[in-house]
Backbone:
């Protein structure tokens, strides 16, 4: 297996007014391509911050962060946005779908940043919705879907542009047990059958069981790195 | 255009709020269309007819008449092709509110005002009929007059020698204004100055001329001829002021007030209120969508794209409401003009009004969208997703 993500001595300091808060300090981590990693830890441990850095939503204060050999910690805002569009799919706890767009239109969103024609965008979005088992709900708006269905639409949106990496922040945090298991099963399928590398933040040990590895963070540092 | 459905969906995310905002924009541009038509009605600025004509009035007041003897002296000035005269009659028809733009005019008036399109046979009858009058087709339509009708007009100024202020006229012609004629040309009532002179109780006024219309051999001689005319009466008891017809019309309209300034002041207040109202609505709408905008940026939309989409949303909102408002003005203005019985001769909403309106829509849309767009552009994804 080849290394997809290489993190060296990564630190992140937030400034809240006059106060400086070091959320991550000296994190070293490598994630192999095709891995499914769960990040766990108490609130404030820095797991979401680490996920945001890996997904290119934020930049580290110090250290290096390379994804597929590219130092994303050195990219400017515009280049980072283009990098995210090309390489990362995001899944959030609260789905974060556009309420005024149908499922189909929501899934098409990342494709608006590509050179695909409208017809190609429609086709690709339909395939993604089919993959998550929601092709029959394409014309429904988020308010007409259950929580589990909305999260499936969010996953379809995350995978529609065929990204290398899926970044999931508490993807089952707002779902009932059955829906959560369906979503986790879907993520595992994407990992095993479609080769997607997944980094998932979760509080739920049962959710973490679906991952290949679990990483524990506490007070901004890695404390454990165990096989599931 | 690829993002149009996103902009459109964002605009109608809260339909009721958008509807009321659109209604306020529509009302503002309806008012703009109507006021601009009013301004145009009082302005002859766009008309190119009359550039070869000068108007000579008393230097001190338009109501002070000029001696008839001045006509021959003006005619002798090089560059003058013809000299005609006109007097304000101040006519009303049946009811004091039915004001008629009535003028006693010299015999050569129709030769000078070639934009008055009167059929040759009607002109012959007009020339041969002492009490004959020709009227614009809009005026004829307003009162239901037709050729052959005997029409009594009451003058608010001039009684006849009998003391009666009612003057009988025979409608002998109905003219059309030629293309390019000044606003209101088809609202006029023209009759013979000779009849005005002979029957007028104020004999001295009747033989005088209210103002002279001087036709030039060439428009570029306007300045020199105007100076020469005014020099004829310098230091006399009837000093004159000679100006182009357009300047005369403009100063005539200004007697009512500076319509352009009044219209601009009202529209300024309306658009200022619109900017505050729409700006507040846009700011609120974008604030509500903070997390959605953060998701767009997360997916990979650049800050500039987000800025452009919010700006476009503001412009689209203004253009939608504004176009509906101006279109409605296009329907309402002729109805108002008709309802005024021809007194308010409002021109239809023209290309110039549309272009000015569209420019205002885009400018106001960009202005009200600017602050929310800047906020959206500078949105920090991590903070926005965390609800901070």
Residues:
């Amino acid at each position: 297996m080849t290394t997809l993500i290489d993190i060296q001595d990564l630190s992140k300091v937030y400034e809240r007014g006059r106060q400086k808060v070091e959320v991550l300090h000296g994190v070293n981590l490598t994630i192999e391509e095709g891995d499914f990693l769960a990040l766990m830890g108490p609130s404030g441990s820095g797991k979401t911050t680490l996920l945001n850095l890996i997904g290119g939503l934020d930049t580290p204060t110090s250290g290096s962060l390379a994804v597929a050999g590219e130092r994303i910690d050195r990219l400017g805002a515009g280049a980072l946005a283009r990098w995210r569009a090309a390489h990362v799919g995001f899944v959030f706890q609260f789905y974060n779908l556009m309420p005024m767009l149908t499922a189909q239109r929501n899934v098409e969103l990342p494709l608006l940043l590509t050179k695909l024609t409208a017809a190609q965008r429609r086709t690709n979005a339909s395939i993604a919705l089919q993959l998550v088992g929601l092709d029959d709900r394409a014309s429904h708006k988020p308010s007409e879907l259950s929580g589990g269905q909305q999260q499936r639409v969010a996953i379809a949106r995350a995978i529609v542009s065929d990204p290398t990496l899926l970044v999931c922040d508490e993807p089952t945090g707002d779902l009932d047990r059955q829906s959560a298991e369906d979503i986790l099963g879907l993520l595992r399928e994407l990992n095993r059958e479609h080769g997607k590398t997944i980094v998932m933040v979760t509080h739920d040990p049962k959710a973490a069981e679906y991952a290949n590895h679990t990483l524990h963070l506490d007070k901004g540092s890695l404390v454990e790195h165990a096989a599931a | 255009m690829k993002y149009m459905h996103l902009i459109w969906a964002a605009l109608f995310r809260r339909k009721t709020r958008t509807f009321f905002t659109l209604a306020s924009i529509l009302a503002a541009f309806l008012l703009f269309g109507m006021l601009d038509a009013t301004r145009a009605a009082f302005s002859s600025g766009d008309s190119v007819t009359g550039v070869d004509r000068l108007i000579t009035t008393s230097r001190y007041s338009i109501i002070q008449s000029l001696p008839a003897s001045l006509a021959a002296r003006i005619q002798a000035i090089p560059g003058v092709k013809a000299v005609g005269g006109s007097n304000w009659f101040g006519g009303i028809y049946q009811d004091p509110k039915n004001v008629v733009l009535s003028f006693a005019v010299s015999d050569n008036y129709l030769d000078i005002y070639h934009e008055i399109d009167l059929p040759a046979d009607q002109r012959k009858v007009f020339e041969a009929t002492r009490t004959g009058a020709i009227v614009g087709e809009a005026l004829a339509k307003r009162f239901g007059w037709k050729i052959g009708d005997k029409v009594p007009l009451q003058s608010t100024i001039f009684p006849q020698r009998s003391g009666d202020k009612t003057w009988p006229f025979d409608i002998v012609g109905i003219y059309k204004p030629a293309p390019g004629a000044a606003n209101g040309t088809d609202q006029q009532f023209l009759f013979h100055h000779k009849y005005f002179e002979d029957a007028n109780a104020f004999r001295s006024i009747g033989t005088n001329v209210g103002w002279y219309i001087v036709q030039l051999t060439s428009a570029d001689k306007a300045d020199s001829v105007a100076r020469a005319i005014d020099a004829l009466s310098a230091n006399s008891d009837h000093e004159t002021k000679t100006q182009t017809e357009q300047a005369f019309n403009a100063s005539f309209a200004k007697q009512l007030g500076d319509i352009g300034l009044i219209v601009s002041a009202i529209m300024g207040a309306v658009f200022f209120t619109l900017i505050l109202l729409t700006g507040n609505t846009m700011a609120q709408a974008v604030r509500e969508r903070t997390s959605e905008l953060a998701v767009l940026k997360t997916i990979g939309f650049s800050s500039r794209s987000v800025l452009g989409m919010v700006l476009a949303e503001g412009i689209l909102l203004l253009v939608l409401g504004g176009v509906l408002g101006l279109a409605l003005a296009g329907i309402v203005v002729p109805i108002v003009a008709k309802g005024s019985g021809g007194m308010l001769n409002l021109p239809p909403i023209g290309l110039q009004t549309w272009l000015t309106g569209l420019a205002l829509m885009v400018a106001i849309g960009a202005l009200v969208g600017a602050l929310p767009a800047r906020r959206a552009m500078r949105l920090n994804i991590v903070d926005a997703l965390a609800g901070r």
